[in-house]
Design goal:
single chain; 85 residues; mainly alpha; 75% helix; 0% strand; elongated
Length: 85
């Protein structure tokens, strides 16, 4: 494996784990983990929306990194070119 492939695989795994974590932190209908965390630190509705906006940004960033690293790995290793040892 070349260093470029290792970098893209690490980015793919980390962004996938990040997406799982950030999606799980999103609130569903006001009873999510995000609401429990934000209500413990902040008392106003304005700060709760700020936390949700930041979670949205981090989730989108992780999704874009995941997609780019997936496409890069698909271009590096087209279907059927990986030789198992």
């Amino acid at each position: 494996m070349t260093p470029l492939v290792i970098i893209f695989v690490v980015l793919l795994v980390l962004s996938g784990i990040g997406m799982i974590v950030f999606i799980m932190l999103h609130s569903g209908k006001g009873t999510g983990v995000s609401d429990a965390i934000s209500s413990a630190f902040y008392g106003t509705q304005q700060s709760i929306s700020l936390v949700e906006k930041n979670l949205d940004k981090f989730t989108i960033i992780c999704g874009v990194v995941f997609f780019i690293s997936l496409i890069a790995l698909m271009l590096i290793y087209p279907q059927g070119t990986i030789n198992p040892r």
